[in-house]
Amino acid sequence: MSKRSSVNILAALGKRVVRRLVAAKRRLVVKMAHSEAGPRKYGNQGYRKETRQERELAFWANVKIKESGCWDWTAAKRDGRYGTFMLDGKNERTHRASWILTFGKIPQGKWILHKCDRPICVNPGHLFVGTHKDNVDDMVHKGRSARGERAARTKLNGKIVDFIRRKYERFSRTFGTVALGRKFGVSSQSISAVVTKVNWKYRP
Q1: What order of strands is seen across the sheet that includes strand 77-78?
Q2: Angle at the Cα of 131 (from 125 to 133), degrees rounded to 5?
Q3: In DSSP terms, which residues pair with 65 in a beta bridge?
Q4: Of 135, 144, 140, whose CA–CA distance to 178 is shortest?
Q5: Angle between helices 188-195 and 177-184 (to 10 degrees)
Q6: Residue 44 has what DSSP assignment?
Q7: CB neighbour burial string for 92-127, b if at least 16 within 10 angstroms, e if fewer
Q8: Is the entire prediction scored with pTM above 0.85?
Q9: Do residues 162 and 135 touch, judged by C-beta distance below 8 A?
Q10: N or C, which end of the chain is more exposed by having fewer CB within 10 Å?
């Protein structure tokens, strides 16, 4: 993907995505039960699966465009922050689903980050591809690390920090940032800050 500014991205994608959003809202009440393909059915009972177009319409139907330019997700959320949406058989965070629906597959090992620093925003123009390190650097630059450190220090101690750094495995379901965050009752960002020594930097 070429490196274009957010303004250029919005100019190129805005009209197309907004048209989809409007169409989705208009068609949300149509259950597709009487379509040419017959009743919507699933699995061993003979029911058909939703098409990619139907999933896309369902996604944009749950988006509210704000005057600030953010497109807020209004349906299911995880931990009250990131939205979740089932896409291609996987429960994706909604900002990732927005990227996939707009740009296509996310490069392996890459993260989708927010320019606006709002987890519920799914505006493609507010998203960019980055790495785990980019995510931590962005967190520090925007001043989120200090808040995370203060919050984390009430639950983490030196022994736990040592355990996290020893056991951490990137993308692991058992010892990844999300799993370790749940284990110790802190955010995945706090775990990232521990692993990369943004927080607890003076502990070897």
Answers
A1: 77-78, 82-87, 90-93
A2: 120
A3: 71
A4: 135
A5: 110
A6: G
A7: bbbbbbbbbbbeeeeeeeebbbbebebbbbbbbbbb
A8: no
A9: no
A10: C
